[in-house]
Design brief:
The protein is α/β, with parallel strands linked by helices. The protein is built from 12 helices and 8 strands. Bound molecules: NADP nicotinamide-adenine-dinucleotide phosphate and 2-acetamido-2-deoxy-beta-D-glucopyranose (2 copies). Pfam families: adh_short.
């Protein structure tokens, strides 16, 4: 074998090793913590990150409720989780986060039939064009306003128990908040194409962060976390993404998208680890805690957003 060939082979091996272990894979969160008697609600728990998280938490003994639009799909996933985990405390419920009536109905049913809510994972979300009947685009309604509504409708339940049973709320967001200064301009716009979608994503993320900050600072035993998974290869990239992004991300996703099994590990840490509590209301990219940028901690921006959120969702107060 020539020297050149040998060098090439060594480089290929090193790059391959790095790619596999640090790009496609990553650290595993090691913990044998059990969650018997704890209740977790995961929106959109029938696919992607929500589904692998639901499976893991069921294996730890938690009571797991998954909720999304497609009940038939969720019921199949529920059966799959019960079969694999041996835990029968798994429930599938229906909610359409594009419709506030559906969110209200769901919250009522959950409140009346579930004794506790220890972990709320606001995970459902997808990136599509289009408007809702509220005059706000679908993205903002699904990924912010309905989370605002649902979380507030279940807040009393969480507050009541939080002295004895600390509550954690985790909101799935993206890095894009860094590029949004305001939240309002993107709400009423039907996003078309890449730039619009980015603006809307960024503003939704920022709104979520401001909401989580307010909740966390109410000091009622509820801690909140904004989680950006980074790039994880989920079903959503094939089905739930707007057209231009699907084209653009197709190859990079296969090359660089993290495998799901590794991508959800940081979520476990945010749910299970005591060390994260001091970062309540803050931002995580994967396992890494990141300081929020100053524009996201601007307290005077919350008041107008809160008013708008009450108005849009029809809540009277929080
Ligand atoms: N994967 C990534 O790299 C990445 C990066 C940054 C942020 N995120 C965020 O992480 C979250 C999960 O992403 P994923 O990639 O795991 O997504 P996914 O596989 O596409 O799953 C999305 C889930 O949301 C549910 N859903 C969609 N629209 C809904 C609606 N109107 N009402 C109720 N449920 C609805 C879907 O179930 P039904 O179809 O049954 O409704 C599905 O369970 C999202 O919020 C996403 O923005 C992901
Ligand atoms: C949270 O928001 C409510 C409603 O705007 C406000 O009254 C309260 O002072 C805020 N709390 C904190 C700690 O920011
Ligand atoms: C904070 O938010 C308010 C209200 O949106 C805005 O007027 C002000 O310019 C912001 N301040 C900074 C430093 O961004």
């Amino acid at each position: 074998m020539s020297f050149k060939l040998l060098v090439s082979a060594v480089i290929a091996l090193v790059v391959g090793y790095y790619w596999l272990n640090y790009v496609k894979r990553g650290p595993i969160y090691e913990s044998d913590k059990k969650l018997d008697g704890r209740t977790v609600l995961i929106t959109g728990g029938n696919s992607g990150l929500g589904k692998v998280l639901a499976m893991d938490l069921a294996k730890r003994g938690a009571r797991v409720v998954i909720a999304s639009r497609n009940l038939e799909k969720s019921s199949k996933v529920k059966d799959e989780i019960i079969k694999e985990s041996g835990n029968h405390e798994v429930r599938a419920m229906q909610v359409d986060l594009e419709d506030f009536d559906s969110v209200r109905k769901f919250a009522k049913e959950f409140d009346e039939s579930e004794k506790y809510l220890d972990y709320l994972v606001n995970n459902a979300g997808l990136t599509l064009e289009g408007m809702t009947k509220y005059g706000i685009n679908r993205y903002f309604v699904i990924s912010y306003f309905s989370r605002f509504l649902l979380t507030n409708l279940l807040l009393d339940k969480m507050k009541k128990q939080s002295a004895e049973r600390p509550v954690r709320i985790i909101n799935l967001v993206t890095f894009a908040y860094k590029y949004a200064e305001v939240t309002e301009s993107g709400m009423t716009k039907d996003p078309k194409g890449f730039m619009d979608m980015f603006t809307v994503t960024a503003q939704t993320d920022l709104a979520n962060i401001q909401f989580m900050r307010n909740l966390s600072r109410q000091n009622n035993g509820i801690t909140t976390y904004n989680f950006n998974p980074g790039w994880v290869y989920t079903e959503g990239y094939d089905t739930n993404l707007f057209y231009e992004a699907r084209l653009l991300f197709y190859v990079p996703m296969i090359l660089f998208g993290q495998e799901l099994h590794y991508g959800y590990q940081p979520l476990l840490k945010l749910l299970l680890d005591d060390s994260v509590v001091k970062y309540s209301s803050e931002f995580f990219t994967g396992f890494d805690h990141e300081e929020l940028l100053p524009h996201a901690t601007n307290d005077s921006a919350w008041e107008p957003l809160m008013k708008k959120s009450l108005e849009v969702t029809g809540l009277s107060s929080i």
